[in-house]
Amino acid sequence: MCNFARGGRGFMRYSGIRDGLFIRRINRFVAEVDIGGSTEKVHVKNTGRLADWLVSGRRVALAEAGRDQPGRKTRYSLIAAERQGGWVNIDSQAPNAVVREALQAGRIVELPSVRSLRGEAAFGGSRFDFHFDDGVREGFIEVKGVTLERGGTALFPDAPTARGARHLEELAKAAESGYAAFVIFLVQMEGCLRFAPHEAEDPRFAEMLRQAARAGVRILAYDSVVSADEIVIGGPLPVTGVLPPP
Fold first, then answer.
1. 83-103 pLDDT, tens per residue?
2. Using an 8 Å Cβ cutoff, are 62 and 51 in contact?
C-alpha cells in the first residue's frame, strides 16, 4: 500500500506524490506513465475499466510505494487522474479506509453512533467490508468506490461485477435475518449531483440493488473532496433508480 495519513475524520492523504502523463495501460494492474520525461511502469490501484480517465496524455498523480513490500516491481502507484475542474481518485483501497474513518468519526449521517467496527465480516457465503454495532443494532456494511460519471450522475459499476451482485444478495439475506444492512457508494470525485446504478452496463447488479433495497438494505451515496494527494468524504447524495417514487 502507498504511504498515507489517516486523520480521524474520513480522509486519506498520500505521501511521495509525483506528477506524470499517462501513456498506456499494459494490463489491469500495470500502466506506463511519463515521469519527468522518462517512461516508467506503475501499479494501477483499480482493476476497473477507467476508460474516461486512463487516456494517453492525461495528467495523473502517482504515490510512491512503501518500502516494506518485498518483491514489488514498481516504484509508484497511480492513484488519481485529472478531470475538468479537479481530480478523480482511482485508488480502489481508498473508499474502505475513508468510510471506516468517517464511521468512527460520526460523519455518516445515517450511522452517527457506531461503537464497534470490524472489517472482513463473514455472513453466509460472503465477507462484507464491515460489521458494526451502535448499541441499538448490529449489522453489515458494504462499501463501493465510484469513478464513473455521466451528466452529473455518478454510476456504479463501470464493468459487470458478479461479485458485487452476490454481495447484494447476501446483504438482502442479512436484512431479512434481522440485521441492519447498508451499502455505501463513495463517489471518488467532486461535482456529482446524484447516484444511480449503471443499468446499461450491468442490469443484474442494478436489479439486485433494487431487490436489496426492497429487503431492507439501506442504499447510501456520499461524494468526496479530491485533490492529487488527498480524498476527504463529503456529504450525502440522492440515490435514484433504486426505489420507485413515493
1. 988 999 999 999 999 999 999
2. no
Amino acid letter, residue 175: A
The fold adopted by the segment(s) 94-236 is Trna Endonuclease; Chain: A, domain 1 (3.40.1350)
**CATH fold of 4-84, please?**
OB fold (Dihydrolipoamide Acetyltransferase, E2P) (2.40.50)
Give me the amino acid identity at 237: L
Q: d(Cα 51, Cα 38) in Å, to the nearest integer?
A: 23
C-alpha 171/C-alpha 213 separation (Å) is: 10
* Rounded-to-10 torsion of CA 21, 17, 81, 162: 120
The pLDDT tens digits for 118-134 are 999 999 888 999 999 99
Map grid coordinates 467496527 to a residue. Answer: 117
| Contact criterion met (CB below 8 Å) for 215 and 176 | yes
Q: Is 85 exposed, middle or buried (0-12, 13-18, 19+ CB in 10 A)?
A: exposed
Using alpha carbons, select from 132, 158, 133, 125 the residue that is nearest to residue 144.
158
* Residue extents of the structural domains in the chain: 4-84, 94-236
Return the closest-CA partner of residue 147 out of 25, 231, 240.
231
Which residues 6+ apart lie within 8 Å of 84 measured at CB? Answer: none
Cell of 197: 446504478
First to last CA, the chain: 44
Angle at 82 between CA 77 and CA 87, to 5 degrees: 90
